[in-house]
Amino acid sequence: MMRISELTVRFGAFTAVGGVSLDVAPGTVTGLVGESGSGKSTLARAVAGLTPYRGTVTGVERGRVQMVFQDPYSSLNPRMRIGDAIAEGSRVPRARRDAEVARLLDLVSLPAAHARRYPRELSGGQRQRVAIARALAAGPDVLIADEITSALDVSVQGAVLNLIRDLRAELGLTMLFISHNLAVVRYVCDAVAVMRHGHLVEAGPVGDVIGAPSHPYTRTLLEAVPSLART
Questions:
Q1: Contact by Cβ (8 Å): 20, 66
Q2: Residues 93, 97, 99, 101: what is their CA dihedral angle, to the nearest 10 degrees?
Q3: Which long-range contacts (CB under 8 A, 24 or more apart) does 70-73 make?
Q4: For residue 230, what pLDDT is reported?
Q5: DSSP H helices in the chain
Q6: pLDDT of amino acid 206
Q7: Closest Cα partner for 121 from 177, 175, 78?
Q8: Mean pLDDT, to the nearest integer, of 45-54?
């Protein structure tokens, strides 16, 4: 169990995240939703050790949280071949890294030959698959996906979401999945936590929160997705 307790992030006088507590059960995907500026990405970066915070994150070793970012192009070194980018974070011996890179590329449904390519030679969806493979190379206890489909064409978003579902089923991943879209969260997540203005306003099993939201803000988010508002 990854347990986030009273996590607070401040930038000067501004409180971006104010005392958030949240449990992420092992082998589950927990969605973190809210509008832009709600603090969800800041919370994720704090859990990943990328932003200083007050409070505690327990149940996961330092360095065993990996993050996949929104823009797959800016998160990859344009001068580094795909295979080298994936191998960089791998924990396997150097002699086995080529085989490990091929295994990870296959895991995200990319051919092993892509290891010799550069990010500019791939599509946005392929680059995001590489970013996921690179994160998995470190053998994380928790994988954080931060709006990983929002920078992609609509035509490839579904394929990436299906990949996340497949990886979760195959690897038993524990994930924190960040999105502004409750329809996407319902598709990939077991539980959901709703953030507003840096605070957690509602959390629970995804079916309960979407089926019978208790907070007015959650109901507002649902109304923005008509197909969910009717269910």
A1: no
A2: 140
A3: 70/146, 70/147, 70/148, 70/150, 70/151, 71/151, 72/119, 72/124, 72/127, 72/128, 72/130, 72/131, 72/148, 72/151, 73/119, 73/124, 73/127
A4: 53
A5: 40-47, 82-88, 97-107, 124-137, 154-171, 182-188, 206-211, 216-223, 226-229
A6: 96
A7: 78
A8: 96
Note whether 190 and 29 are within 8 A (CB). yes
Q: Which two tokens stand for residue 139?
A: 């053998």
Q: Report the CATH number of the 2-64+141-229 domain.
A: 3.40.50.300
Cα distance between residue 132 and residue 164, in whole Å:
9
R_g over Cα of the chain:
18
CB 119 within 8 A of CB 78: yes
* pTM of the predicted model as reported, rounded to 2 decimal places: 0.93
Tell me how far apart the alpha carbons of residues 54 and 10 are, in angstroms, rounded to a whole number.
9
| Residue at token pair 């649902």 | 222
Please say whether the beta carbons of 144 and 175 come within 8 A. Answer: yes
